[in-house]
Amino acid sequence: MTTANAITTLAGDAGLAFVGCAMLGAAAPGAPAATPSVAQAAAPREAQVTAAGTQQAATPSRRREVVVSGKRVKTVDVHAHCSVPEAIAMMASPLPGPPLLLFAKVEDRISAMDAQGIDVEALSINPFWYKAERDLAAQLIKLQNEKLAEFCAAHKERFVAFATVALQHPDLAVEQLVYGVKSLGLRGVSVGGSVEGEELAAEKFNPVWAKAEELGVLVFLHPQGTAELASRLTGNGGLDNAIGNPLETTIALSHLIFEGTLDRYPGLKLCSAHGGGYLPSYAARSDAIGVTFPDRVKPLKKRPTEYLRQLYFDSLVFTPEALRHLTAETGPHQIVMGTDYPYPWTRTSVDHILATPGLNDDERIAMLGGTAAKLLGIA
What we know:
By secondary structure, this protein is an alpha/beta fold. It has one domain: Metal-dependent hydrolases (TIM Barrel). 40% of the residues lie in helices and 13% in strands. The chain is built from 16 helices and 15 strands. It has a six-stranded parallel sheet with strand order 8-9-12-13-14-15. The protein is globular and about 60 Å long.
């Protein structure tokens, strides 16, 4: 499908396109693949989920309800992608995503949400506009944010959205953030892991973080890959995604810690995709660097590992043990559910949380939706 034809096809549904993959019906290699009934059986008794197995989940008219210890839980997915075709056309860019794309109608997405037991999705758009000059960036972001707001208003029980901003023009990004949150009712802001090679911890971006802190809104950080490592990430295995994406998140968060950004803005609510990349799995080395090579570390207000407790992370790690470890490193109330929908990494995010050992009911409820609902202002 050509870009022009795709844009024509996608004109409906308030100008939003839901970007997916031809493999949407199959779990990706290594992704959790348990059916709801299997995962329910594996979950502790105190955290059972209301579902009638795969037959019910496959019925579009039936909505899976998640119940923990007899309490109906509102589930919130903070990591769900979409796009605005008209905005993409303004950049004359190819449609983002893998070569094989599926553009689903809103009914298809809601059916998938119902099957998985997801009540609300927080929509975000991966930045493709960081190269745009100021006037174009202003027009593109205004259109994009207004389309996001229009769509969410039409489906307000099921969707909220993150504002998009032109980080390459920080003063403009501040204006766009304020307009998106205060005038359009968007619930936060989504950003990439870097901006055309510049780290998010660069001083020029401080006004954006200051305004996000002032507004009290969530910043959702999604990596864009590590283009500077392209020659090393070629070959079999899709390493540019498998390694490159979580690596960029790891680098971005590490700079935000070590450059003092999180000290300057302690109230900043920052959530990173893919469980924070590699940082939570090896964060103690960041503490050790200050002991082993103290001359390389400027003083911080806390040990690097302590900053993990003021950040948020989505649950998109791939085994119960990985989620248990993430919880141990960050705290259970710092984790929110993320699916990366419509990319087929997983269709069992709810069951993944329910099947993770060592969690109590309150912690499961927080991960499934309680924490995200507070961060995003969802009733």
